[in-house]
Request: fold
Amino acid sequence: MPETVINDVARYMTEVGARARAAARAMARADTAAKNAALAAIAGDLDRRRDALGQANAADLEAGAAKGLDAALLDRLELTPARIDAMIDGLAQIAALPDPIGAITDLNYRPSGIQVGRMRVPLGVVGIIYESRPNVTADAAALCLKSGNAAVLRGGSEAFASNQAIADSVRAGLVAAGLPADAVQVLQTTDRAAVGAMITCPEYIDVIIPRGGKGLIERISRDARVPVIKHLDGICHVYIDDRADLDKALAVALNAKTQRLGTCNTMETLLVAEGVAAQILPRLAAAMTEKGIELRGCERTRALVDGVAAATDADWDTEYLGPILAVRVVADMDAAIHHIESHGSHHTDSIITQDYGRARRFLREVDSSSVMVNASTRFADGFEYGLGAEIGISTDKFHARGPVGLEGLTSQKFVVLGDGQVRT
Reply:
């Protein structure tokens, strides 16, 4: 689908915002059956329109290659048959999740006789700005829909045709279930002015979720007049303790780096306790090299493994999203935690150890949105956490932290139940 020429972006965005606000009111009162019916209809339409999705994505890939997008970005852009299957499965998983809207918790009697509790309610209109991955369009639409929100989605120019093809299925599913088609609007322009309008119109949009490069997220965080749920970097660590099972450590570290390179939960720095460095690093280096990973190490790493490039100070603070891994030998867990605190991004960090006490201490002291024991950082994902999908990962401490699923797209309000009580 070619991009629509929009001469007055400000007016267009006002119209989109007004339609989204009206749709949000309808979505807030939609029942669970209607929302699940829409999700099923979207999944069915995506399945029927696989050829159209493939053709749209092929056009985006061809254009991206012509523009010189690197391999990691092209990988994020590609809609393989397996990724289309994953979108469809994600819709089914979200439909199967309990509907959070209207749930009342913490209901307690007060001495006056009233009952006070909290009810889950939608946020309203969620604006999502993302790059490359077109599957985000389906995930975002589904999560916003199930959580009773309306959504305004702005994908990257490199995925325009793919996003519009997915949007066609979303609209068809909403209409089939009797829900407003405007509940999910995928912007039909890639004009950067549309982003500026989204992040500065609190009268229409209640929260912004950016997914993309650091430059995009920094700009949105700086300029937004709408609350933002975000993370800037995914500088994730695996620390191999000197009480680790080394076979387990090898498997976890290799998976954390090589299972997929261009994701925010991929390991970027490996920390190894000096007590096991001589045993594990040569094995790890051989395995990483076989997978095409370039190692950049500290002096102690280079002394143990031939051919490792010297790490610079910048390497400890870099999210590579590619086939490069920084490696540092540290004295102990204290040194590992200090390194993570100094250079990490509070995204996801993992310890490999058989020592229960050290594992508990690592969980308690590492201040990241996901902290793991004997598991790959690649598990920091909405699907893997049982959220059905995620709309992004937040390293903020308010309003949501970690993978943002259905509950992260809701707020709470106090509800009071009485029987004629008056305050004295």
Notes: The longest helix spans residues 9-28. The chain has a mean pLDDT of 94. DSSP finds 14 helices and 16 strands in the chain.
